[in-house]
Amino acid sequence: MLKLCKLITHPTWRMLQVMYSNQVQISNLTLVNSPSWNVHPIYSSDIIIQHLTIIAPIDSPNTDGIDPDSCTNTRIEDSFVVSGDDCIAVKSGWDEYGIKFNMPTKNLVIRRFTCISPDSATIALGSEMSGGIEDVRAESITAINTQSAVGRGAYVKDIYVRNMTISTMKYVFWMIGSYGQHPDPGFDPKAIPIIKGINYKDIVADNVTYSARLEGIKNDPFTDICISNVNIKLTEKPKELQWNCTDVQGVTNRVTPVPCNLLPQKEIDCPFPEARLPIEDVQLKTYSVTGYFS
């Protein structure tokens, strides 16, 4: 833990941070103009985040909306975020520190979520993901963005996304393995992340510049990518190369524009788990408080 503290070279104020906690409920709040990340649950479990409105200037960096970080069993739903950075950023530690602490983010449900962030992602997986990210289920959202890098280690796997409506985006799909920021020179360049089992289905998009930028890591490709039932309508002046793919492996079905050769067509419907995670059925508790507070 002391080594983690060395990463902080200047104050990084969070609007709301919850650490080493379980059975957490955050609901019916409006958060405005945070100096940094807005909601940051970390090293916690059994979390419900519901009915939040988060507003930050769209030109303000590092004002992430909700950042589940090394958390298990989290549900984020029915919320609205305007941000100059990622609306949701899923994290699990940075480079050698995250590898040593070894606490993944897993069993995460995101649904009925609206994001406005012109230069960032609706949902980013990483880039700080060295403890691992596993079993993320997102539906009724707008876009998703996956970032990783050599030196991260760990994994991002079993990601399921469906029912997305996208309007006016640079990329519909963006997965990149060269997001190369590191906390210090002590990272292990041989710690190669594993990215596999990324599934997208039932997506409608309009006014898009590029369909996809999918860049894995040389000699360590992103694998088991599945994209099905996707209809992308382009801007009036789209880029000629719509699918920019390197070091990725997977399949597609019923996708327009036609994907790259590394994602050949196959008669398949990408999976989305039917079995519900336990956190999906937990009811939000309500409390009433009377009295005067000063």
Overview of this protein structure:
The protein has a single domain, classed as Single-stranded right-handed beta-helix, Pectin lyase-like (Pectate Lyase C-like, 3 Solenoid). It contains two helices and 15 strands. The strands form two sheets. Strands 2, 4, 5, 6, 7, 8, 9, 10, 11, 12, 13, 14 and 15 form a 13-stranded parallel sheet that branches.
Please give the CATH class: Mainly Beta
H/E element order = HEEEEEEHEEEEEEEEE
Instruction: Report the count of strand segments.
Output: 15
User: What is the CATH architecture annotation?
Assistant: 3 Solenoid
User: What is the radius of gyration?
Assistant: 19 Å
> Average pLDDT value?
85
Q: Count of DSSP helices?
A: 2
Distance between the termini: 36 Å
Largest sheet: 13 strands, parallel
Q: How much of the polypeptide forms β-strand, as a percent range?
A: over 45%
- Tell me which oligomeric state these chains represent: single chain
Specify the overall morphology: globular
**Model regions low in confidence, pLDDT < 50 over at least 5 residues:** 1-10, 146-153
Under CATH, the topology is which?
A: Pectate Lyase C-like
> How many separate domains?
1
CATH H-level superfamily title: Single-stranded right-handed beta-helix, Pectin lyase-like
Structural class: mainly beta
Helix content: under 10%
